[in-house]
Amino acid sequence: AKLWTMVRHFEGAPKPEDFKLENKELPPLKDGELLLESEFLSVDPYIRPYSKEKKEGDIILGSQVARVVESKNSAFPVGGYYVAYAGWATHFISDGKGLDALPSNWPDNLPRSLALGAVGMPGVTAYYGLLEICKPKEGEVVLVNAAAGAVGSLVGQIAKIKGCKVVGSAGSDEKLTFLKEIGFDEAFNYKTASSLAEALKNASPEGYDCYFDNVGGKFSDATLQQMKDFGRITVCGAISQYNDAVPPTGPYIQPYILFKQLLVQGFLVWTWKNRYTEAQKQLLQWIAEGKLKYHEHITSGFENMPAGFIGMLKGENIGKAIIKV
Ligand code: NDP
């Protein structure tokens, strides 16, 4: 097997020299075990903050869609496809625990990589993070940042399905074009806007009912001031702060939460593990009906995993960043 390990803990933005490609001979299978081969691997922002909990030399965290190539476990026959959290490896041995079979109604015409994106963890995040925390109602205004990414692009489309006006922000003009193509009402480039406050006001002069936050930091500071009374906020990610060496303090914006009576709730998708299937079923149905468009940014070659991960953190991706082995 080939695997990528973490040479040292990341300091600031992850760099190519933080990663090492290793070869590992896997032992013969014991009874109850199976050998899987990764087909697609996922590079996700959470790998950056959660790597702090890993030791130097450990395999890099991550999930994949993998096929059973050898099995001594009758519950997992050769040829079956599963989503696994086995880290950045081409091959790995499992006892079957923690493997999730692809949804049984998986259509033949959909790439299996979607089990890591629109129909996988990011899809479920967008679905429950928006519908169960923000609870948008028809006619309301929904704001999402990192809007052209895996989660954000789905949040915006689900909000449109629910009859909302949707505003997105993203880091390039190419991404703004993409957002318009998938139905966003308004989109602005947070990197070139002269002021976030102005950009937010221009996109929705009446303010925002719902804010799905993937970014945190200054973007949230500016947005809290534009929220409508009784607005709801899903704190889903803080990608603008994952590389910070010093834990963030402040910001001193609580008066907005108080006087606007905002509801602010953190969201972790793992909490919704026992309701994955329900969300996946709906996401698959919307895709089949053409109501939900998915986009993938595919990097080919296992050896390019660090480049794919670093690129995603820098915003090179439109839609879900995926590595094809
Ligand atoms: P994306 O596909 O959105 O990729 C990350 C994007 O973040 C980049 O494309 C880039 O787009 C944007 N970005 C990077 N740095 C900054 C910055 N400093 N300020 C603003 N935007 C930035 O990733 P995901 O959809 O997988 O994840 C999006 C967010 O959701 C992340 O914060 C992630 O941690 C979170 N998440 C949380 C989950 C949970 O359970 N809470 C589960 C899944 C994801 P751009 O060009 O626009 O800058």
UniProtKB/TrEMBL annotation:
Residues 12-323 form the Enoyl reductase (ER) domain. It is found in: Cytoplasm. It comes from the Eukaryota. CDD domains: leukotriene_B4_DH_like (cd08294). It holds the Pfam family ADH_zinc_N. Its main location: cytoplasm. It is an enzyme of class 1 (oxidoreductase). It catalyses: leukotriene B4 + NADP(+) = 12-oxo-leukotriene B4 + NADPH + H(+); (5S,12S)-dihydroxy-(6E,10E,12E,14Z)-eicosatetraenoate + NADP(+) = 12-oxo-(5S)-hydroxy-(6E,8E,10E,14Z)-eicosatetraenoate + NADPH + H(+); 4-hydroxynonanal + NADP(+) = (E)-4-hydroxynon-2-enal + NADPH + H(+); nonan-2-one + NADP(+) = (3E)-nonen-2-one + NADPH + H(+). Its EC number is 1.3.1.48, 1.3.1.74. GO terms for biological process: prostaglandin metabolic process. Coiled coil: none annotated. GO terms for molecular function: 15-oxoprostaglandin 13-reductase [NAD(P)+] activity; 2-alkenal reductase [NAD(P)H] activity. Keywords: Acetylation, Cytoplasm, Fatty acid metabolism, Hydroxylation, Lipid metabolism, NADP, Oxidoreductase, Phosphoprotein, Prostaglandin metabolism. GO terms for cellular component: cytoplasm. Belongs to the NADP-dependent oxidoreductase L4BD family. Monomer or homodimer. This is Prostaglandin reductase 1. It comes from Xenopus laevis.
